[in-house]
## 1
Amino acid sequence: MRLWVIAVGQRMPHWAQEAFEDFHKRFPPDWRVTLKTVKTQAREGEPAPKLMAQEAERLRQALPQGACVVALDERGKTYTTVALSKAIQGWSLEFADIAFVIGGPDGLDAAFKLEARQLMRLSDMTLPHAMARVLLIEQLYRAWSIQSAHPYHRE
C-alpha cells in the first residue's frame, strides 16, 4: 500500500519535522508513506478563494494518478482510530495509492474538496498546520498497528 501526505507548506518547525520523521521511519516497507509538499501561495492582497484555487492546482499536480483522495477539512467526517484503519483497508482494495491532503492557511479550495473521495476531520479543535501533519502520520501509523496486530494500539 502506498500512502501519501500531500500538504501545502514547505517549512515546518523543527519539532514537527522531527516528530513526522520519527513516525515515518516506523512504517514497514509494505506501508510506504511519502510526504509531498507544495508551495503556499503568497498572501499579498488576493482574495482567499483565488489563493486556494492556485494552491489546489499545485496539489492536483502532486497527486499520484488514480489515487483515493482524502481531503482534511474541518467539516469532514470524524473517524475513530479503528474506523480510520478500516476505511484505509477498504480504500486499499480499490486504490493502489491513498493521498491525504492538507490545505494551506485558508484551507482547501471548494472545487478540490468536491473532487475528493472523502473529507476527513482530524479534530473538533482548530490545529496548527504542523500539528495536523504530526497527528495525521501518527494516526496512519496507529492504523497500520491495528491492521498488523502490533501492540502500539491498545483498546
## 2
Amino acid sequence: MATESTPANSENVPGPYTCHCLVARQMARQLTRAYDRRLRPAGISVGDFSILQFLSPGEGMTMADLGASLFMERTTLVRNLRPLTAAGLVETSRDPQESRRHMVAITATGRRKLSEAAALWSQAQEEFEAAAGAAEADEIRRRSLAALGLMQD
C-alpha cells in the first residue's frame, strides 16, 4: 500500500495522499457533510449559510463581487442562488447605476434564517474544533486563508 511519502507503484507515481488538492477536497467534503447535517433543521446548507453570511453586512453586492468572494464561477453562483431566491431569502436586481450589473441582497426573511441557523452552525464549528483541537482548527483555517491570499500568514 502506498503511504504519504512512498510511490504508489514501481513507476515512481506518487501516492494519492501526497496530492494537496485531493486531501483538501476530501477534507472539504467531510466538513460539508458535518455542517450540512447540523444545519438541516434550519432547512439550509452550509453553502446557503455562507452566501447569507457574505450578504448580511450590507445592502447587497454585485453578482461578480459575491462570486469572487466565494471563489465561485458565475454559473455555479446562479445555480446556488436559485433556491435562496425561491425561498425569499435573497433577491436579485439590476444595479441602478449600471444596468449590466446584477445585484444580490439578503432579505428580511434571509436575515431571520441566518439568525436561526447561526446556533446550528456554531454547533458544527464546536464539533470540528472538538475533533481537530481548537487551536489546530484555527490554524487550519488561518493557513487556508493565507494560501488563498485572504490573510497574511
## 3
Amino acid sequence: MKIDKIDEQIIAILQKDAKSNVKSIADQLNMTKTPIYERIKKLENEGIIEKYVAIVNRQKLKGGMFVFCSVSLEVQKLEHIERFKAEISEIPEVMECYLMGGANDFLLKLHVNDLNAYHQFSSGKLAALDNVSQIKSTFVLDVVKKESAIEVF
C-alpha cells in the first residue's frame, strides 16, 4: 500500500497518542471525520498499524532491571534457529528478541526483578535451551532515550 502525506500525519498523531479519536485527528488535519476514519481502517487492514498499546513504565510498576543478552547458537541451520525463536517467544522475561547478523545470533531484551532472578533466568532457562552455546550479558544502568514511534516522513 502506498501512503500519502495525510496517512503519514495520521500515523504520526497516533504514535504520539494512540488514544487520539477520529474527531481530534480530523480537526488537527482540517478534514472531516469520515475520510480520517476510512484511512485509519485502511492502515489497520493493511497491517501498517499493527495494534494499539499502553506503554507501561515497568520500573514504576514492578521495579526490577533490564538486561540485554547476546546469544550464540552452536548450529545455525534454519530448523535450529526456528526452534530457538519458538522457545524464546514463550519465556516471559524476554521482552524483545532479534535475529542478528554478525558476531552473535540473537539479541534479547529482558526484564528481571534483580541479579538473582537474572542468574536463575540465564542458567535455568536460557542456557537450558537446546543449541545455546554462548550468552553475553549487559546490564542497563540508566535509560537515556526510549522511543517507540518511528519516523514516517
